[in-house]
Amino acid sequence: MPEPILTVAGVSKTYRNGPTALGTVDLTVNRGEIFALLGPNGAGKTTLISIICGIVTPSSGSVTVAGHDVVRDYKAARRAIGLVPQELATDQFETVLATVTFSRRLFGRSGHSVYIEQVLRDLSLWDKRHARIKDLSGGMKRRVLIAKALAHEPDILFLDEPTAGVDVALRRDMWKLVHRLRADGATIILTTHYIEEAEEMADRVGVITGGKLLLVEEKNALMAKLGKRQMDLTLVEPLDAVPPALSDWPLTLENEGHTLRYVFDAKAEDTGIPRLLERLAQEQIAFRDLETRKSSLEDIFVDLVGERA
């Protein structure tokens, strides 16, 4: 049976004389999983993470992390959490090694040089351990934030938009690191608006927008349940418009009329494809290529947010 490590029950946040930043949220995350909270900027992702980490006080509800209430047993709950914030907030004149060691000692841990060395090596920071943070590149500074969050050996790691503004190579390095951390037993929760990040890493996905958690679902199950297939026909001769004879199918023209696109439910008993191809032959609409693909998580996300806007 899955073991819950995080339980969010009836949590909301409304600022005094201000907007409701977060509607009522219920969420359970299991030990050892990678959970992606997916949503556009301003959706409420950072507010929810800040409440869980004890940075923001909720207007209602409760949060339990590793068995500890984040309000009543704040110190124990916070020890179980490693947080990588969006902002690059570090002492710019400290060295990498000093700032990571300081973060470890803040939580009552000894200056465990072997553990810290391993963390810095995993993040490709060991050769920079004596460098001042102000002299590092933006990508390296981002790695330092992750090292600081991992310094006290937390049970659960929060990554708030971890790859915002970093290059593709660093993004993929971070993906590898996240998978390695999970293999070592860590639970990872990340917020992101990069669809490919959630698709690459997550076991489960939560979709949030307008302060409301629309759904939580296993990634593969979500894609199987809501995903569609798309068929593109590359036409021999371009069309100015979809002919009336093809009005039985929800077709669109793309690529300046050179591509006829059909989006369909792959699970349906009748996809309509054989009849469509037959009708195309009857109308003497020739095509030179046919390609199908599954919906991506991005397609599903856009559909979900569009439906509930």
The domain count comes to: 2
The first-level CATH class of the largest domain is given as Alpha Beta
Structural class: alpha/beta
Chain-averaged pLDDT: 86
Stretches where pLDDT falls below 50 for ≥5 residues?
A: none
Order of helical and strand elements: EEEHEEHEHHHEHEHEEHEEEHEH
Tell me the number of strands: 14
State the helical fraction.
Answer: 25-40%
| Rg (CA only) | 24 Å
CATH topology (fold) name of the largest domain: Rossmann fold
Shape: elongated
Q: For the largest beta sheet, what order do the strands appear in spatially?
A: 6-7-8-3-9-10
Strand content: 25-35%
Tell me the span between the first and last alpha carbons: 36 Å
Largest sheet: 6 strands, mixed
CATH architecture of the largest domain: 3-Layer(aba) Sandwich
Number of helices: 10
The CATH superfamily of the largest domain is identified as: P-loop containing nucleotide triphosphate hydrolases
GO molecular function, one term: ATP binding
Domain ABC transporter: 6-235
Keywords: ATP-binding, Nucleotide-binding, Transport
Pfam family, one: ABC_tran
Tell me about this structure:
The chain has 309 residues and is α/β, with parallel strands linked by helices. It has two domains: 4-224, Rossmann fold; 228-294, Alpha-Beta Plaits. Helices cover 33% and strands 28% of the residues. It contains ten helices and 14 strands. The protein has helices spanning 45-52, 74-79, 96-106, 113-122, 138-150, 168-183, 195-201, 219-226, 273-282, 297-308; strands spanning 4-14, 20-30, 34-38, 60-65, 68-69, 81-84, 156-160, 187-192, 204-209, 212-218, 229-235, 251-254, 259-264, 287-294. The protein has a six-stranded mixed β-sheet, with helices on both faces. Strand 12 and strand 13 form a beta hairpin. The longest helix has 16 residues, at 168-183. The mean pLDDT is 86.
